[in-house]
Automatic annotation (TrEMBL):
The lineage of its organism: Bacteria, Bacillati, Actinomycetota, Actinomycetes, Frankiales. This is SDR family NAD(P)-dependent oxidoreductase. Keywords: Oxidoreductase. InterPro entries: NAD(P)-bd_dom_sf, SDR_fam. SUPFAM superfamilies: NAD(P)-binding Rossmann-fold domains. It comes from Frankia nepalensis.
Amino acid sequence: MAVTGASGGLGLETARALAARGAEVVLLVRDPARCGEALRVTGRSGQLITLDLATLEGVRAGAARLLERWPRIDVLVNNAGVMATPLGRTAQGFELQLGTNHLGHFLLTALVAPRLAADGRVVNVASRGHLVSGMNWDDPHYLGRPYRKWEAYGQSKTANILFTLGLARHGYSAYAVHPGMVATDLYRHLGEADQAAVQNRPAGSEATVKSIAQGAATIAWAATVEGVASGSYVADCAVTMAAPHATDPEAVERLWTWSQEQVRERFPVRRMES
């Protein structure tokens, strides 16, 4: 099993949970120097690959190292991401949140897809943040329109769900996960007011902040559960509903085609089982 963003937070806890179940876990990380704890908790099962999602060259190099060492991948967990960042751009000029959260993972998955086991799966970590915004096809990278950090984050999370449905449509087992509101390093770009607003939600509300272990539980569940339909959007270890703009069939196909054009990689289509 391979997990992006496994040096801390949800990725680290997911890797820990999967290793505890006997899985060999490959940690895909941007900064290997931060992975001491991840390697400790995964023990002998933990292996380390450097992969930078903010550059297509970094994704290709990391994927090549991964596939050189592992001829078969059972589960790919696309967990890494950024949230509510100031306006920034990847090496290719993509808006940072869309480029990192979706396009980097799209390319990684396309490169790994030929090595996915017949019963393998892809788990995309999404968010209820997708409710904030659908895809803005006229200017997805904020080249002309005013930048709004939460709108950009919502767009990237909508892309995660649309991508999951595209994978299912093209013959892969895939799940989109809302892990819940979890205070991790993902919050590092939030100001004090934003952090206070997030962490002071009413007890018992749907948006109550979870522990990292609670958030990772649904990711690990999606990586191992049987009998759940491919393309499902899940939260709290159960199937739930995403917003209509994140499940629209036309948007699913449009994102698939657009993403291939952006990363300059044709995604291999898997033959559907009869």
